[in-house]
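Final report, Chapter 2: Outcomes

The project's central promise was a pipeline that accepts a single protein chain and returns its three-dimensional structure in a standardized token representation, suitable for archiving and comparison. That pipeline is now operational. To close this chapter, we reproduce one record exactly as it appears in the project archive, with the input sequence first and the structure output second.
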Amino acid sequence: MPQNKITMRKIFFLFFATMISITTYAQDSSLLKMLNDSMTVHEKPFYVTGTFKAGHIVNTQTIEQPGAGALNFVIQHRFGQLNSGAYNFFGLDNATLRLGLDYGISDRFAAGVGRSTYEKTYDGYLKYKLFRQTDATNKMPVSVSAIGQITYYTLKYPEKPYLTSSDRLAYTAQLLIARKFNRNLSIQLTPTYLHYNLVQTPGDKNNIFALAAGGRMKITRRMSINVEYNYLPSGQITSPERHDSFSLGWDIETGGHVFQLVFSNSQSMIETQYITQTTGRWGNGDIYFGFNISRNFNVTKKAKNAKKS
């Protein structure tokens, strides 16, 4: 195992251990004295909100989704590698972009579509919230969403004239399991199943299993630090150039939208690509700087009335 990968895993798990220990120390002995937000105790249990402030931790989707009748416009942008040198302005001369639209069919059911310049890929998904975390009574300690996604890349490969439409399809199924510990700390685990109709080498598996972990630590009223790590167990992808995806984000809430600065060793922003096709290494400076922007629009009366209330 490369020394770089070991180091990044140590950093990742040390970060989470530190956040959890800080949270445990800071909690009052009485859990009924919760914070002045959606986790304040009421006489009757109610659902926790604002576990994350956007639909993505960095690349990984969160349990958050638009409310019923709301439309969310997402821009995800990654420049080139920082180590590409001054001639490429340290990556700023190059870019990968994904545009997405997410729509809330109901408060628990959402659908989304997107298009990425990376391999000219289209994606679509359905997301349903199975369980919602309740307040300090802990009747339901976590929120759980299920998501199914399909991707289709359209990039032309003259050297591969045999590619069919079916060969270009890949599928993702995920469970998003998240808990908001207090108004400052939220953590999410994401077991992931991927299926590729066509793999890159005979040694690669068509069915892939991975596990993502990520979290959000609030540092000011409108800012937070996000971190995520996508672990792919060995033996599924044979390429020695592939590495686990590790990403950092700095969220800034600016009223109507959330702006996030991103640092990642992954160029793509779609699960079927960054989980299995990341080739960058943090230790080599293969870091893609970029940003995510999400803007919410209320397009139905129901959504507008919900916002007013």
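Archive annotation: The chain has one domain: 3-308.
This record, like all others produced under the grant, will remain available to the consortium after the project formally closes.
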